[in-house]
Amino acid sequence: MLIVQNISPRAESLGSLQTAPVLVPALTQAVALAAGSPGNWTAPRWVPEVSCFVFSGNALYVFSDDCLQLWTVTAQYQLNGWTVNGSDLYNQDGCVLSQYDLNALIKNTSATPETAVNFKTHASWSSQTNPQSGYQALFADCAGSDLLYSAPTVLNDNSGNPSFFVLSGTGTVIPFSANLQVDPCVIDRTGRQCAVTLLAAGSAIDADERRI
What we know:
This protein is mainly beta. It has a single domain (2-209), classed as Lipocalin, CATH 2.40.128.630. It has helices at 102-106, 132-136; strands at 2-13, 16-25, 45-47, 52-56, 60-64, 69-73, 79-85, 88-93, 96-101, 115-118, 124-126, 153-155, 163-167, 173-176, 185-187, 193-195. The strands form five sheets. The chain has a five-stranded antiparallel beta sheet with strand order 7-8-9-10-11. A hairpin with a 5-residue loop joins β15 (185-187) and β16.
């Protein structure tokens, strides 16, 4: 079903502003899902690049435009949040950030992320160079406060090069690229800059390499 939603004002003349109605799809029927904690459901987000809905509760759900459940991504640590940029889905599971290709999920050609990184251990993984067991190995040695990371955030400035950020529980802003390479300059809440080695897919960073 299509609903009319006002998105942004459009200048029709120098003296007036008109609101341009935009047609956007909406879920129009009930879907059966496992119950989550009260208040933790997000509104369905329409992803026009791949014609699907994404939303979360106690898990991350991908639905088709005709309300068919396509995929469920269950957290191994805890679901801290997610975001979408184009056809890429970014999911923060505790201290592990994973990048999924929604096209691959919908076409059922892949059930694993494209890339992933553990912000606590600095280990990273890529589906191009490592088997699925390597992805599962990222989920180790993290508990309690190690899991406190925000949902990923994307900032688009119309330059074609979006910026991505995650906030750690200690107040550190972690910038990274679309393919989960961590920016070499990480700024913490005190404004100091921490120089870190660039994360490449399949590589790992020793904690001693970080300096303030």
